[in-house]
Prior knowledge:
Elements: H1 26-41, H2 64-74
Amino acid sequence: MTDENVTPEPVAEPAPRVPVTPPQSRFLYVDVAALRAKQLRRGALPRLEKTDDGETRIEPPRKPERVAMEEVRRGLVSYHVPDLKRPTGGPRS
């Protein structure tokens, strides 16, 4: 087999982020922002929009908590709230 017969696999471009609705509950907002701040402190890249020159629109340096709050407010962080199911049967002790 020669190198001429090998065709490169097409590189899929990442799908554009669709903003989600920010949480309506303050508790959920704080909880989502806290989890996102934890990700940022561990090295995740901020999801804030970049300007044409590649700079973020927010003045650095900023605390991860503030960046996370702004990301959640803009709808850049997706989240899932699990359904709560009550335990069935059995007497309470």
